[in-house]
Specification:
By secondary structure, the protein is α+β, with helices and mostly antiparallel strands. It has 10 helices and 16 strands. The strands form 3 sheets. Strands 1, 2, 4, 5, 6, 7 and 8 form a 7-stranded antiparallel beta sheet that branches. It has a 6-stranded mixed beta sheet with strand order 9-13-14-3-15-16, with helices on both faces.
Protein backbone atom coordinates (compact mmCIF):
# COMPACT_ATOMS: atom_id res chain seq x y z
CA UNK A 1 0.00 0.00 0.00
CA UNK A 2 1.68 3.19 -1.22
CA UNK A 3 0.29 6.67 -1.72
CA UNK A 4 2.03 8.06 -4.81
CA UNK A 5 0.59 11.53 -5.16
CA UNK A 6 -1.85 14.13 -3.88
CA UNK A 7 -3.04 17.23 -5.72
CA UNK A 8 -5.02 19.88 -3.85
CA UNK A 9 -6.96 22.63 -5.60
CA UNK A 10 -8.44 25.54 -3.61
CA UNK A 11 -8.30 23.25 -0.59
CA UNK A 12 -8.05 25.12 2.72
CA UNK A 13 -5.18 27.63 2.26
CA UNK A 14 -3.76 25.94 -0.85
CA UNK A 15 -4.46 27.33 -4.31
CA UNK A 16 -2.83 24.39 -6.07
CA UNK A 17 -0.07 22.02 -5.07
CA UNK A 18 1.13 18.66 -6.30
CA UNK A 19 2.72 16.31 -3.75
CA UNK A 20 4.73 13.36 -5.04
CA UNK A 21 5.42 11.05 -2.11
CA UNK A 22 8.23 8.54 -1.58
CA UNK A 23 7.59 4.98 -0.29
CA UNK A 24 9.47 5.72 2.96
CA UNK A 25 9.26 8.76 5.22
CA UNK A 26 7.84 12.07 3.95
CA UNK A 27 8.09 15.16 6.14
CA UNK A 28 5.83 18.21 5.90
CA UNK A 29 8.04 20.88 7.41
CA UNK A 30 7.06 24.40 8.39
CA UNK A 31 5.81 26.76 11.09
CA UNK A 32 2.35 26.45 12.60
CA UNK A 33 -0.68 27.52 10.53
CA UNK A 34 1.13 27.19 7.18
CA UNK A 35 -0.85 24.22 5.79
CA UNK A 36 0.93 21.07 7.01
CA UNK A 37 -2.13 19.65 8.74
CA UNK A 38 -4.26 20.47 5.68
CA UNK A 39 -2.22 17.98 3.65
CA UNK A 40 -2.74 15.24 6.23
CA UNK A 41 -6.44 16.11 6.41
CA UNK A 42 -6.78 15.69 2.64
CA UNK A 43 -5.13 12.26 2.80
CA UNK A 44 -7.30 11.25 5.75
CA UNK A 45 -10.43 12.20 3.78
CA UNK A 46 -9.52 9.49 1.25
CA UNK A 47 -9.37 7.02 4.12
CA UNK A 48 -12.30 7.94 6.36
CA UNK A 49 -14.41 10.25 4.17
CA UNK A 50 -14.51 12.65 7.11
CA UNK A 51 -12.20 15.18 8.69
CA UNK A 52 -10.53 14.77 12.08
CA UNK A 53 -10.95 18.53 12.60
CA UNK A 54 -14.42 19.65 11.43
CA UNK A 55 -17.85 18.20 10.66
CA UNK A 56 -18.63 20.53 7.75
CA UNK A 57 -17.23 20.66 4.20
CA UNK A 58 -17.25 24.46 3.98
CA UNK A 59 -13.81 24.92 5.64
CA UNK A 60 -12.29 22.77 2.86
CA UNK A 61 -12.96 25.57 0.34
CA UNK A 62 -10.32 28.28 0.04
CA UNK A 63 -11.52 31.72 1.09
CA UNK A 64 -12.98 33.56 -1.91
CA UNK A 65 -13.64 30.37 -3.89
CA UNK A 66 -16.82 28.35 -4.39
CA UNK A 67 -15.41 24.87 -4.76
CA UNK A 68 -12.31 22.81 -4.05
CA UNK A 69 -10.97 19.38 -4.92
CA UNK A 70 -8.40 16.79 -3.90
CA UNK A 71 -6.96 14.17 -6.26
CA UNK A 72 -4.92 11.16 -5.23
CA UNK A 73 -3.19 8.12 -6.60
CA UNK A 74 -2.27 5.07 -4.54
CA UNK A 75 -1.12 1.56 -5.37
CA UNK A 76 -2.56 -1.41 -3.53
CA UNK A 77 -2.38 -5.12 -4.32
CA UNK A 78 -0.68 -4.33 -7.65
CA UNK A 79 -3.57 -2.09 -8.69
CA UNK A 80 -3.72 1.66 -9.19
CA UNK A 81 -6.50 3.65 -7.51
CA UNK A 82 -7.30 7.30 -8.18
CA UNK A 83 -9.72 8.82 -5.67
CA UNK A 84 -11.19 12.30 -6.20
CA UNK A 85 -13.28 14.44 -3.87
CA UNK A 86 -14.93 17.68 -4.90
CA UNK A 87 -16.42 20.11 -2.40
CA UNK A 88 -18.95 22.86 -3.14
CA UNK A 89 -20.40 25.76 -1.19
CA UNK A 90 -23.91 25.15 -2.54
CA UNK A 91 -24.29 21.38 -2.81
CA UNK A 92 -23.05 18.08 -1.42
CA UNK A 93 -19.58 16.80 -2.13
CA UNK A 94 -18.87 14.42 -4.99
CA UNK A 95 -16.64 11.36 -4.65
CA UNK A 96 -15.07 9.37 -7.47
CA UNK A 97 -12.84 6.32 -7.51
CA UNK A 98 -11.16 5.56 -10.85
CA UNK A 99 -13.61 7.91 -12.62
CA UNK A 100 -16.68 6.19 -11.15
CA UNK A 101 -18.99 8.09 -8.78
CA UNK A 102 -19.15 6.34 -5.41
CA UNK A 103 -20.77 6.81 -2.02
CA UNK A 104 -18.73 7.17 1.19
CA UNK A 105 -19.40 3.58 2.26
CA UNK A 106 -17.87 2.39 -1.02
CA UNK A 107 -14.57 4.18 -0.45
CA UNK A 108 -14.06 3.79 3.31
CA UNK A 109 -11.57 1.00 3.90
CA UNK A 110 -10.12 1.21 0.40
CA UNK A 111 -7.24 3.46 1.53
CA UNK A 112 -6.00 2.00 4.84
CA UNK A 113 -4.37 4.66 7.00
CA UNK A 114 -3.66 5.29 10.67
CA UNK A 115 -3.77 8.86 11.93
CA UNK A 116 -1.98 10.05 15.06
CA UNK A 117 -2.65 13.68 15.98
CA UNK A 118 -2.18 15.73 19.18
CA UNK A 119 -5.72 15.18 20.51
CA UNK A 120 -4.92 11.46 20.70
CA UNK A 121 -2.37 12.19 23.43
CA UNK A 122 -5.38 13.12 25.59
CA UNK A 123 -7.23 9.93 24.68
CA UNK A 124 -6.95 8.40 28.16
CA UNK A 125 -7.95 11.45 30.20
CA UNK A 126 -10.09 13.06 27.52
CA UNK A 127 -13.83 12.86 27.01
CA UNK A 128 -15.71 9.62 26.21
CA UNK A 129 -16.64 11.22 22.89
CA UNK A 130 -12.96 11.34 21.90
CA UNK A 131 -12.54 7.64 22.71
CA UNK A 132 -15.73 6.68 20.84
CA UNK A 133 -14.57 8.66 17.80
CA UNK A 134 -11.18 6.92 17.86
CA UNK A 135 -12.82 3.52 18.19
CA UNK A 136 -15.44 4.05 15.47
CA UNK A 137 -12.95 5.39 12.93
CA UNK A 138 -10.63 2.45 13.57
CA UNK A 139 -13.52 -0.01 13.38
CA UNK A 140 -14.81 1.35 10.08
CA UNK A 141 -11.39 0.89 8.51
CA UNK A 142 -11.49 -2.86 9.12
CA UNK A 143 -15.27 -3.20 8.69
CA UNK A 144 -16.57 -0.47 6.32
CA UNK A 145 -20.15 -1.77 6.65
CA UNK A 146 -20.22 -0.26 10.14
CA UNK A 147 -20.17 3.24 8.62
CA UNK A 148 -23.76 2.70 7.44
CA UNK A 149 -24.84 1.36 10.84
CA UNK A 150 -23.24 4.25 12.72
CA UNK A 151 -24.81 6.85 10.40
CA UNK A 152 -28.21 5.19 10.78
CA UNK A 153 -27.84 5.22 14.55
CA UNK A 154 -27.08 8.96 14.56
CA UNK A 155 -30.23 9.64 12.53
CA UNK A 156 -32.44 7.49 14.77
CA UNK A 157 -30.94 9.04 17.89
CA UNK A 158 -31.73 12.55 16.59
CA UNK A 159 -35.28 11.54 15.65
CA UNK A 160 -35.95 10.03 19.07
CA UNK A 161 -34.68 13.21 20.75
CA UNK A 162 -36.95 15.31 18.53
CA UNK A 163 -39.93 13.15 19.53
CA UNK A 164 -39.04 13.44 23.23
CA UNK A 165 -39.16 17.24 22.96
CA UNK A 166 -42.64 17.05 21.33
CA UNK A 167 -43.89 14.14 23.44
CA UNK A 168 -46.62 15.93 25.41
CA UNK A 169 -48.08 17.57 22.28
CA UNK A 170 -48.42 14.39 20.20
CA UNK A 171 -51.31 11.97 20.59
CA UNK A 172 -49.33 9.11 19.02
CA UNK A 173 -46.19 9.82 21.06
CA UNK A 174 -46.15 6.57 23.06
CA UNK A 175 -46.50 4.26 20.07
CA UNK A 176 -43.99 6.31 18.06
CA UNK A 177 -41.51 6.17 20.93
CA UNK A 178 -41.90 2.38 21.11
CA UNK A 179 -40.80 2.20 17.46
CA UNK A 180 -37.74 4.40 18.02
CA UNK A 181 -36.81 2.42 21.13
CA UNK A 182 -36.78 -0.79 19.12
CA UNK A 183 -34.60 0.79 16.44
CA UNK A 184 -32.15 2.30 18.92
CA UNK A 185 -31.91 -0.97 20.86
CA UNK A 186 -31.25 -2.96 17.68
CA UNK A 187 -28.62 -0.58 16.31
CA UNK A 188 -26.99 -0.11 19.72
CA UNK A 189 -26.62 -3.85 20.13
CA UNK A 190 -24.95 -4.25 16.74
CA UNK A 191 -22.55 -1.34 17.35
CA UNK A 192 -21.65 -2.28 20.94
CA UNK A 193 -21.06 -5.90 19.90
CA UNK A 194 -18.72 -4.83 17.08
CA UNK A 195 -16.90 -2.28 19.20
CA UNK A 196 -16.26 -4.82 21.94
CA UNK A 197 -15.21 -7.40 19.36
CA UNK A 198 -12.71 -4.93 17.87
CA UNK A 199 -11.21 -3.99 21.26
CA UNK A 200 -10.94 -7.67 22.20
CA UNK A 201 -8.99 -8.34 19.00
CA UNK A 202 -6.87 -5.21 19.54
CA UNK A 203 -5.89 -6.09 23.12
CA UNK A 204 -3.04 -8.57 22.46
CA UNK A 205 -1.49 -6.24 19.85
CA UNK A 206 -1.67 -3.28 22.25
CA UNK A 207 -0.27 -5.36 25.10
CA UNK A 208 2.69 -6.37 22.94
CA UNK A 209 3.54 -2.72 22.29
CA UNK A 210 3.14 -1.88 25.99
CA UNK A 211 5.49 -4.75 26.85
CA UNK A 212 8.10 -3.40 24.47
CA UNK A 213 7.85 0.18 25.73
CA UNK A 214 7.92 -0.75 29.41
CA UNK A 215 10.38 -3.65 29.21
CA UNK A 216 7.67 -6.05 30.33
CA UNK A 217 6.85 -4.08 33.48
CA UNK A 218 3.36 -2.91 32.53
CA UNK A 219 0.30 -4.90 31.57
CA UNK A 220 -2.39 -3.12 29.56
CA UNK A 221 -6.05 -4.17 29.62
CA UNK A 222 -8.96 -2.66 27.69
CA UNK A 223 -12.55 -2.85 28.95
CA UNK A 224 -15.56 -1.71 26.93
CA UNK A 225 -18.40 -0.17 28.96
CA UNK A 226 -21.97 -0.33 27.70
CA UNK A 227 -25.44 -0.99 29.08
CA UNK A 228 -24.20 -4.23 30.66
CA UNK A 229 -20.95 -6.05 31.27
CA UNK A 230 -19.46 -8.37 28.68
CA UNK A 231 -19.50 -11.25 27.97
CA UNK A 232 -23.08 -11.26 26.68
CA UNK A 233 -24.72 -14.37 25.23
CA UNK A 234 -25.36 -12.89 21.77
CA UNK A 235 -26.44 -9.72 19.94
CA UNK A 236 -30.12 -10.47 20.59
CA UNK A 237 -29.47 -10.66 24.33
CA UNK A 238 -27.65 -7.32 24.18
CA UNK A 239 -30.55 -5.81 22.22
CA UNK A 240 -32.98 -6.87 24.95
CA UNK A 241 -30.83 -5.19 27.58
CA UNK A 242 -30.72 -1.92 25.62
CA UNK A 243 -34.48 -2.02 25.08
CA UNK A 244 -35.15 -2.63 28.78
CA UNK A 245 -32.83 0.24 29.72
CA UNK A 246 -34.60 2.58 27.30
CA UNK A 247 -37.97 1.66 28.81
CA UNK A 248 -36.62 2.15 32.34
CA UNK A 249 -35.32 5.64 31.56
CA UNK A 250 -38.26 6.78 29.45
CA UNK A 251 -39.81 9.17 31.99
CA UNK A 252 -36.44 10.78 32.66
CA UNK A 253 -35.82 11.12 28.92
CA UNK A 254 -39.21 12.79 28.38
CA UNK A 255 -38.39 15.35 31.07
CA UNK A 256 -34.90 16.13 29.76
CA UNK A 257 -35.70 15.77 26.06
CA UNK A 258 -32.60 13.61 25.52
CA UNK A 259 -31.93 9.90 25.09
CA UNK A 260 -29.92 8.74 28.09
CA UNK A 261 -29.33 5.14 26.96
CA UNK A 262 -27.56 3.93 23.84
CA UNK A 263 -24.10 3.52 22.36
CA UNK A 264 -23.71 7.31 22.18
CA UNK A 265 -23.06 7.04 25.92
CA UNK A 266 -20.68 4.07 25.82
CA UNK A 267 -17.00 4.28 26.66
CA UNK A 268 -13.93 2.13 27.24
CA UNK A 269 -11.38 2.09 30.04
CA UNK A 270 -7.71 1.21 30.00
CA UNK A 271 -6.04 -0.44 32.96
CA UNK A 272 -2.30 -0.55 33.58
CA UNK A 273 -1.29 -3.27 36.02
CA UNK A 274 -4.91 -3.48 37.15
CA UNK A 275 -5.31 0.25 37.90
CA UNK A 276 -7.52 2.59 35.89
CA UNK A 277 -5.12 4.56 33.68
CA UNK A 278 -7.38 7.63 33.69
CA UNK A 279 -7.03 7.96 37.45
CA UNK A 280 -3.72 6.42 38.45
CA UNK A 281 -1.37 6.37 35.45
CA UNK A 282 1.41 8.92 35.07
CA UNK A 283 1.50 11.11 31.98
CA UNK A 284 4.27 8.93 30.57
CA UNK A 285 2.23 5.76 31.14
CA UNK A 286 -0.83 7.35 29.53
CA UNK A 287 1.17 8.32 26.46
CA UNK A 288 2.60 4.81 26.26
CA UNK A 289 -0.95 3.43 26.38
CA UNK A 290 -2.05 5.76 23.56
CA UNK A 291 0.95 4.72 21.47
CA UNK A 292 0.01 1.09 22.13
CA UNK A 293 -3.52 1.73 20.86
CA UNK A 294 -2.35 3.49 17.69
CA UNK A 295 0.30 0.90 16.86
CA UNK A 296 -2.23 -1.86 17.55
CA UNK A 297 -4.67 -0.13 15.20
CA UNK A 298 -2.01 -0.32 12.48
CA UNK A 299 -1.32 -3.99 13.23
CA UNK A 300 -5.03 -4.84 12.99
CA UNK A 301 -5.29 -3.05 9.65
CA UNK A 302 -2.32 -4.99 8.37
CA UNK A 303 -3.94 -8.23 9.55
CA UNK A 304 -7.23 -7.31 7.83
CA UNK A 305 -5.74 -6.11 4.53
CA UNK A 306 -2.44 -7.97 4.29
CA UNK A 307 -0.60 -4.66 3.80
CA UNK A 308 0.90 -1.97 6.00
CA UNK A 309 -1.42 1.04 6.27
CA UNK A 310 -0.15 4.55 5.53
CA UNK A 311 0.99 6.19 8.79
CA UNK A 312 -0.05 9.85 9.21
CA UNK A 313 1.49 11.78 12.11
CA UNK A 314 0.35 15.35 12.72
CA UNK A 315 2.95 17.16 14.84
CA UNK A 316 3.05 14.54 17.60
CA UNK A 317 6.78 13.82 17.66
CA UNK A 318 7.47 17.14 19.40
CA UNK A 319 5.03 16.10 22.15
CA UNK A 320 6.86 12.84 22.94
CA UNK A 321 9.97 12.38 25.04
CA UNK A 322 13.10 11.07 23.26
CA UNK A 323 12.57 7.46 24.42
CA UNK A 324 9.00 7.17 23.12
CA UNK A 325 9.88 9.06 19.95
CA UNK A 326 12.71 6.61 19.30
CA UNK A 327 10.37 3.68 19.89
CA UNK A 328 7.88 4.91 17.26
CA UNK A 329 10.70 5.61 14.80
CA UNK A 330 11.88 2.01 15.09
CA UNK A 331 8.33 0.64 14.98
CA UNK A 332 7.44 2.42 11.71
CA UNK A 333 10.73 1.77 9.95
CA UNK A 334 10.13 0.30 6.49
CA UNK A 335 6.59 1.70 6.23
CA UNK A 336 5.33 4.68 4.29
CA UNK A 337 5.00 7.57 6.70
CA UNK A 338 3.80 11.14 6.17
CA UNK A 339 4.40 13.38 9.15
CA UNK A 340 4.28 17.07 9.93
CA UNK A 341 6.66 18.93 12.20
CA UNK A 342 7.93 22.46 12.80
CA UNK A 343 11.62 21.61 12.65
CA UNK A 344 13.72 18.83 11.21
CA UNK A 345 15.09 16.85 14.17
CA UNK A 346 17.23 14.66 11.96
CA UNK A 347 15.41 11.50 13.07
CA UNK A 348 14.80 10.47 9.45
CA UNK A 349 17.98 10.89 7.40
CA UNK A 350 16.51 9.54 4.14
CA UNK A 351 13.19 11.40 4.34
CA UNK A 352 11.73 13.45 1.52
CA UNK A 353 11.03 16.93 2.84
CA UNK A 354 8.27 19.30 1.71
CA UNK A 355 8.86 22.80 3.09
CA UNK A 356 5.48 24.47 3.43
CA UNK A 357 4.86 28.16 3.90
CA UNK A 358 1.60 30.04 3.46
CA UNK A 359 -0.11 27.22 1.60
CA UNK A 360 2.75 26.70 -0.84
CA UNK A 361 5.59 24.21 -1.13
CA UNK A 362 8.86 26.12 -1.39
Amino acid sequence: MIIKSLQVQNFRNFEYEDFQFEPGVNILLGDNAQGKTNVLEALWLFSACKSFRVNDDKPFIRIGEHRSAIYGEYHRNDRIYRPVMKFYDDKRREIFLNNVAVRPREIVGQFPAVLFFPDHLSLIKGSPELRRKFLDLALCQTDPSMLVVLNEYNKVHQQRNALLKQYRERIDAKSALDVWDEKIASLSARIAWKRNEYLTEMSPFAQKVMDEISGGKEKLEICYRTVCNFPVRDVEDLEDKFFYALKSHREKDIITGHTSTGVHRDDFDLFINGENAKIYASQGQQRSAVMALKMAEADLLRKATGEFPIMLFDDVFSELDPYRRSYIIERIRGRQVILSCCEDTGDFAEAKIFRIRGGRVE
